[in-house]
Design goal:
This protein is mostly helical. The protein is 85% helix and 0% strand. The chain is built from 2 helices and no strands. The chain crosses the membrane at residues 6-22, 34-57.
Length: 59
């Protein structure tokens, strides 16, 4: 459970930093789009690594 909370914190920090950076370079985006992007990026890559490890373990 603690790992899931840490992942959500990482996602939120990355989203806020991305939002601030995009505001700084005058290309503002909606914060919810950035949160969605980082959720897909972090949890998608975590899922792909899990599937790959299960597949390799089965060989």
């Amino acid at each position: 459970m603690l790992m899931i909370i840490r992942l959500w914190l990482v996602v939120l920090v990355l989203a806020v930093l991305s939002w601030l950076l995009l505001r700084f370079i005058d290309k503002p985006q909606a914060l919810r789009k950035l949160v969605l992007f980082w959720v897909v990026a972090v949890f998608g890559s975590m899922g792909m690594m899990y599937v790959l490890s299960v597949w390799v373990a089965g060989l």
